[in-house]
Amino acid sequence: MKSIYMALFIGFAFVASAQNKIGGTISDKDNKALSNVIVSVPEIHKETISDTDGNYVLNNLPNGSFKIVYSLVGYATQILTVNISEKEITQNISLEENIIHMDEVIVSTAFNKLQSQNVMKVEHESVKSLQQKGTATLIEGLAKIPGVSQVSTGTSIGKPVIRGLSGNRVLVYSQGVRLENQQFGEEHGLGLNDAGVESVEVIKGPASLLYGSDALGGVLYFNPEKFANPKEFKADFSGRVFSNTLGSNTSLGLKTSTENWKFLARGSYNTHADYTIPNGDRVTNTRYNETDFKTGIGYSNSKFSSVLRYNFNKLDLGIPEDGISEQSTSHSTIYPKQAVDNHILSLHNNFYFRNSKLDADLGYIFNDRSEFEDSNVASLHMKLRTLNYDLKYYLPKLGKVETIVGVQGMHQTNTNSGEELLIPDAETTDFGIFGTANYEFGKNVLQAGLRFDNRQVSSEAHGIQGNEGYFAPIDKSFDSFNASLGYKTNLAEDFTLRLNIASGFRAPNLAELTSNGVHEGSNRYEIGNSSLDNEQNLQTDLNLEYKSSHFELFANGFYNHINNYIFISPNGNVIDGNNVYDYVQANAKLYGGEAGIHFHPHPLDWLHFTSSFETVIGKKDNGDNLPLIPANKWNNNFRGEFNVKNWWQEGFATLNIESTFAQNNNSEFETRTNDYTLINLGLGGKISISKATFNFNLNANNVLDKTYVSHLSRLKSDGIPNIGRNIILGINFMI
Predict the structure, then answer these.
(1) Cα-based torsion angle of the residue sequence 714, 719, 724, 728 in order, rounded to the nearest 10 degrees
(2) 511 and 503 in contact (C-beta within 8 Å)?
(3) CA nearest to 323, candidates 628, 721, 614, 724
(4) Where would I find the beta strands (DSSP E) of 85-203?
(5) Are 182 and 190 within 8 A, CB to CB?
(6) What is the pLDDT of residue 3?
């Protein structure tokens, strides 16, 4: 490991000699210059913007074959492959109008291609678009994406659910490294703030080929905000206020870059009181406060690039225990409560050779989690330290075949210092090796890969055997081979088919292996099972897409079979008034999908209509229903876009109708949930007054103040509804 560190940091000081550059002019079909076109080379993290005359220049480019991406809202994204071996290359480009969509480069998959070229269907959403919907938290915004839901505890704690799978079955990546923050716990939220996050990519299905254990159900990949373009300095301030929780969210950021160096920093603060339900009551101790700081520094030349990022997130979370009792508008949490400090340090390096490159990522995550029951002495205190590495070598291209080989690993320690233990002191070590290839022929793309993983888990004994809180020592090893095969083709000029078959796996987590006590988050006495095997799944995905200038249609279907699915089951015993549950395994299956349209009628160029439907069914092989399966949802959205002279630009108005169906396919310890429909309104755009310019959005969510209970709400068992009407005002100033 030390040798890896030395190689990476020595590379950080590497000085290059070549100074290649590419430039040109960008215009439309009538030869009119286009400004503000984003010109990027995703493989080497280079980007610039065309000026008022349509000119652009990218400097310090390495030798080799690279994809240059040209994108502008309202125009079809173009991608060119350019062989760079000369000092200067001129590349002029013409873009064609395409109102309905803009293609995006997908970072979370192996070959960083545009979505239109990608074998796997990946959902891509900018955080800006999620914020325009008036969401208070990052996970609330993610739940707006078809196929994604959340298990929520009030408004402060949310855990992602992808097609019915959650917890350790969904892997989260931030700053290019896997996020480890005790995600097994029901009272543990996502632990990420949306400030300083550019976009999110959602892989809905097993991604163990690229990410190893815990990517059995899918991946959430958060892309950090970009650095400023060369020779730019930018500063911005944003703020949002929320009527329901009397809450606010403020953020201040700055960034600057030279041709080689780049720097950014962003701080934010988020605070909310207890949320209000439609009858006017507040749900006691759902208040929370969050402090977040992100910074990054990068260096690049024609042979090497490196980016070092750091994120500190501090959470002060109330835990709702008494339902609706003490009424208060205070933002200060009361007992019981959580205090969570999370540190993410990541180093991303790229080494460029003549016809190949090496990506080397290092990450360190320190999660310090405390729970206070009735005093400032932590009853539960866990410290999780995780070091992970990810090395990918992109081999020289052979004809039309692109190949990647890589190794990944993780070393993790969990230590306890509180009076209570949920899981024992333990050590986890991962090692994985993989290879994947991409072959393009005509209008077809074929991608395949193979991977082997090993996970070692060892824990220490704690307590007295036979008593509550006793943890027997374990020393377990889990192995798994996984493979994937994907095919994409254009059935017609605007009609695309994608078919993917992939396996995934998940090693049991410490709670499943070792639990022996009352889990306060669920009021159950849980008993672990050290004999649990890997969860192993095989999923088939079919994606059909039709895209034209004024109409889009998509349909996604999946079938996911999981061997040795781990779940808890009551054994009929009661200890200290709590029902006893065992961790057991059985085979299971999940199936369903998403379908939708995007209609942009001509000549009503200002109007957009989108509609999507999502469904998932989860069952054990014996026919019993799986827990935490989201209800079917139908989402309809009308969006009008407009400009008012020169003072209101990029204006929009939205009407969203979100219909959630009754969930009658409940598991044995869940109750059924009624259907409900929510209506949400939005208005926003860019305002220019004198010399001041700012963006704003005004939202009214649940505008009719509908009383409803989500099937995945953890407050459902107490009969507590979800949040009532919420008016949100957000502004963003460039300073």
Answers:
(1) -20
(2) no
(3) 721
(4) 88-90, 93-95, 122-126, 148-153, 157-162, 165-166, 170-174, 177-178, 197-203
(5) no
(6) 44
The mean pLDDT of 461-469, rounded to a whole number, is: 84
Over residues 159-212, the pLDDT tens digits come to 899 999 998 899 999 999 999 988 877 777 888 899 999 999 999 988 888 899
Structure tokens at 161: 């659910």
- List Cβ neighbours of 79 (8 Å cut-off, separation of 6 or more): 67, 68, 69, 70, 114, 117
Nearest-CA neighbor of 149 among 664, 699, 726, 635?
635
Are 168 and 179 in contact by the 8 Å Cβ rule? The answer is no
Cα 631 to Cα 611: distance, rounded to the nearest angstrom: 17
pLDDT higher than threshold 90 for residue 665: yes
Name every residue whose Cβ is closer than 8 Å to that of residue 609 and which is 6 or more positions away in sequence. 597, 598, 599, 600, 601, 636, 637, 638, 639
**CA distance linking residue 550 with residue 98, whole number of Å:** 8
Indicate the pTM of the whole model. 0.91
**In terms of Cα–Cα distance, which of 41, 57, 142 is closest to 91?**
57
Rg (CA), the chain: 25
Note the pLDDT of residue 172.
Answer: 93
Cα gap 355→455, rounded to integer Å:
34
The CA distance from 360 to 352, in Å, is: 12
Locate 453 and state its tokens.
């993983």
566-579 pLDDT, tens digit each: 988 888 888 888 88
Nearest one of 143, 186, 152, 155 to 168, comparing CA atoms:
186
Contact 287, 274 (CB under 8 A): yes
Cα distance between residue 449 and residue 434, in whole Å? 7
Closest CA to 440 of 493, 401, 481: 401
Both tokens of 389, joined, read 């590495």
In eight-state DSSP terms, residue 279 is: T
* Structural domains of the chain, ranges and CATH numbers in brackets: 1-98 (2.60.40.1120), 211-734 (2.40.170.20)
Contact 314, 341 (CB under 8 A): yes
Residue 14 has pLDDT above 80, yes or no: no
119: Cβ contacts below 8 Å, ≥ 6 apart? 109, 438, 445, 446, 447, 486, 487, 488, 498, 500
pLDDT, tens digit (0-9, with 9 covering 90-100), for 714-733: 899 889 999 999 999 999 99
Q: Which residues pair with 300 in a beta bridge?
A: 305
Cβ atoms of 65 and 397 within 8 Å: the answer is: yes
Place of tokens 């545009």: 114
Mean pLDDT confidence for 20-39: 88
* 4 pLDDT above the threshold of 60: no
Q: Which residue has the tokens 């390495």?
A: 62
Q: Could you give phi then psi for residue 4, rounded to 5 degrees?
A: -65, -45
Instruction: Report the Cα 37 to chain-centroid distance in Å.
Output: 26
Q: What is the pLDDT of residue 61?
A: 82
pLDDT for res 594: 97
What is the pLDDT, as a whole number, of residue 231?
Answer: 86
* pLDDT at residue 442, as a whole number: 87
pLDDT at 688 over 70: yes
